[in-house]
Amino acid sequence: METAAIGGYDPQSAICARGITRDFQAGQTTIRVLHGINTDIRSGEMTYVVGESGSGKTTLISIMCGILYPTDGEVKVFGTDIYKLTDTQLVNFRLNNIGFIFQQYNLIPSIDAAANAAVPLIAQGMGVEQARERAKVLLDKLNIGDQADKLPNQLSGGQQQRVAIARALVHEPRLVVCDEPTAALDASSGRRVMDLLREVAVAPDRACIIVTHDNRIFDLADRIIVLEDGRITHDGKEMPDGH
Question: What are the extents of the domains in the chain?
Fold first, then answer.
């Protein structure tokens, strides 16, 4: 069930998506991955997007946060129509408002964990040492403060993921977007990460979107959106029966 009619934007929403379609070309064939998605992501909530592989989850969140242009439709993030911005304006908007936790951690191999986590602050103009110190505070909260001086190839997969999470949160963005943030973590570490996400990313003027298959953390969601074949089939507090 899609949750918002095309039309008026709710100023309380972190994201308003209207009529979102996305097509990809496969040779001479056009494949429609998203079919006119209409939904709002509300501030103050942790919203999960779930569905089978290929259902359009990553495509949808990529469009919602300005990484991938829609074929058609509009997206407003905190009231800004992001696809009417210039490329430079869009990059700056993402830098100042959005934190990303990618399924591929995308760490810079030549710099240590603290520097990787500090990248958004440095990009905003903060001095390197001050940015590193701020990043180390988050690394400590994620129980990898003792790894701050290690290069990515000296870290385990779970440790690399926690560095990526620190990088997404260090500049206190208004919107945090996560693609499988607990996939490489054991149950205890996964709950710790989710607690930190709620502490840092969920507030009256902030929102958090999480793409996940991890049923160990479904109970922590404020809201669960289910995608099937590029359409929203469920939107509610709990997973529907049969999923």
Answer: 44-58+86-236
Q: Are 94 and 87 in contact (CB under 8 A)?
A: no
- Write down the residue that tokens 């095309």 correspond to: 6
Q: Any idea which residue has 């502490």 for tokens?
A: 199
Largest CA distance in the chain: 52
> Homologous superfamily of 44-58+86-236 in CATH?
P-loop containing nucleotide triphosphate hydrolases (3.40.50.300)
Angle in degrees, 0-180, between the axes of helices 157-169 and 128-141, rounded to the nearest 10: 120
What does the block give as tokens for 227?
């995608």
* Of 135, 163, 206, residue with least CA distance to 198: 206
75-91 pLDDT, tens digit per residue, is 999 999 999 999 999 99
Chain centre to alpha carbon of residue 82: 16
- Angle at alpha carbon of residue 210, lines to 209 and 216, rounded to 5°: 140
Q: Which DSSP state fits 215?
A: G
Residue written as token pair 């990553």:
58
Q: CA-CA distances (angstroms) from residue 4 to 32, 45, 132, 207? A: 21, 17, 42, 18
Length of the chain equals 243
105-158 per-position pLDDT tens digit: 889 999 999 999 999 999 999 999 999 999 999 999 888 999 999 999 999 988
Rg (CA), the chain: 18
CA nearest to 210, candidates 223, 191, 229, 228? 223
Kindly state the tokens that stand for 237.
Answer: 């507090």
Structure confidence at residue 38 (pLDDT): 95
